[in-house]
Amino acid sequence: MKKFFSKIDIYLMKSFLPPFFYSIILLLMIMLLDKIFDLSNLIFKKKVPAYLVLEILFLSLPYMLALVIPMSVLVATLYVFGTMNQERELMSLSTGGISLLRIMRTPLIFSLFLFFFLIYFNGFFVPRANHTLKKKIFYMYRYKPSLVLKEKIFNHIGDISIYVGEKDEKRGILKNLKIFQKGKGYVQIIDSKEGYIKTGKEGGYLLVLKDGIIQEKRRNRVNIRKIEFKEHKIYIPPKKKEKVGELGKSDRELTLTELLEGIKKKKEKYLKMQKKNRFLFLEIQRFWVEVHKKFAIPFAAIVFVIVGVPLAKIFGRAGWGSAFGLSIAVFTIHYIFLVGGEELADRAIVSSFVAMWTGDILTLVFGLYLLYKAR
């Protein structure tokens, strides 16, 4: 063990870990900036309980960490090796007969450990956190139904469309309402000065309107019936599986095991069909995209070390500015391939493997080329 891990390895590990953890904290803060404004708005303006908002914030962290950890590997690699390059440490080690491949062994082994950790983290922990997050958001909308409705647009809930002119968040009052409701054999347009929405006893929502007019047109009648009211109630029934414990899971909320089992079942069903169902085929494709993503994103941690070390030696400078500048350029290109590939794979334009692994493979080839030039 002593022969395998020399003083160079210990020195590199001590140099690598602090910027790695600093990068995680800094990148998380950057990603949370947008959410913090929205979440603070929920607490102070929309009067959602602080504990519920903090739970939503906490449950948002895992899927962010899945992206931030590989990014932090790249930033830390560029920072450490950029500093070593500027202080001529890499040159001194090279003169002493220690190759660049030998020097980068320590961060490469560390990234390999991260790869296996992230496979478990992305494959099992993140999906469960995503599903719990979905439940918390659902509960928040049940606790504060007015959050469902936005101002100055038509909000579609169930079979009705609701236009809200203005909202008084403190009192929970909706003003200048216009409701469009289409039923069997009739159409209703309702104008109301104000009203409020609350959770129904059997699920769904109860919309209570004050001081308004109902205009109703029956299918077989020419005349439009007008009804003035002081109070009018509209019950909006819940969708199927709209109880917190019965919420369905999307592909991003399924663990790796559940995805593979789902693919197997859906594939058997698809092969038995005489007339192929494209919707089922696309669903299988989406599941495969998620499976490959749970391996491709962790593998980026290894790829970013391979591309980061020679990049730092050729272009790098000491300091955070250079490290973040180069890492943003590399990760932006990588992320474009990841997101663009997922979009194409979901439409079955390209295979799920090509979609999810193209960014990693191209970055790896580029890194190996730079490594060859920098050796």
Mean pLDDT, to the nearest integer, reads 86
Distance between the termini: 27 Å
> What is the strand arrangement across the widest sheet?
1-2-3-4-5-6
Q: Strand content of the residues, in percent? A: 15-25%
Shape: elongated
**Counting H and I runs of at least 4 residues, what is the number of helices?**
9
Main sheet record = 6 strands, antiparallel
Keywords:
375 residues, alpha+beta, six-stranded antiparallel β-sheet, 6 strands
Write the layout of secondary structure elements.
Blueprint: H1 7-44, H2 50-86, H3 89-95, H4 100-103, H5 105-143, E1 154-157, E2 160-168, E3 173-183, E4 186-199, E5 205-218, E6 224-236, H6 256-272, H7 278-315, H8 320-346, H9 352-374
Antiparallel strand pairs: 1-2, 2-3, 3-4, 4-5, 5-6
Helix pairs in contact: 1-2, 2-5, 2-7, 2-8, 5-7, 6-7, 7-8, 7-9, 8-9
